[in-house]
Amino acid sequence: MAEITIKGLTFEPYISQEEIAKQVERLAAEIKRDCVTDSPIFVCVLKGAFVFASDLYRTINMPKSEIAFIRYKSYVGTESTGEMNKILGLNDNVTGREVIIIEDIVDTGLTAHALRSDIEVMNPMSVKMATLLYKPESLQVGKVPEYVGFEIPPKFIVGYGLDLDEQMRGLRDVYVLKKKD
Ligand code: IMP
Description:
4-stranded antiparallel β-sheet, 6-stranded mixed β-sheet, alpha/beta, globular, binds inosinic acid
């Protein structure tokens, strides 16, 4: 894995696809073990979580489960704007269902908090969150996610679904923004 420079920013390898695959296996086993029904609904938060959700959902492999998609936007470049814009809402019926939100990364917690609140008003049986990455030092609002792949320091990450202004989502490994020397 080599460094990648894009838009004048250099990213270095941080988490390999093999390490990611291991955590996906662990999270899938934990989620399956904790489900109290055989037909939970997974809610993938676009766009960032689409790669993780695809791997996690197929690893969980519960034939009666469903997957839905929702989209919020709060980031521009490498910074959160602090404002939540709902781009795509949830049309699926979650009333009385076990809901597991699949996120790519929980940073300030604003997106996760807004999502949970929006889903909770629909009276689900329960709402839990699975995230590939979690930055505990950045959390400002809301709960700690129930399922966390990796706890990381407050650094800017790309790859495996995560972007810098829509680019680099297709990298198989996770990269971190390198500090300028
Ligand atoms: P939060 O609302 O601040 O917790 O941020 C949530 C959203 O911001 C995530 O779903 C990502 O789309 C984006 N985000 C947060 N941190 C990063 C990062 O390090 N790299 C890329 N996107 C990020």
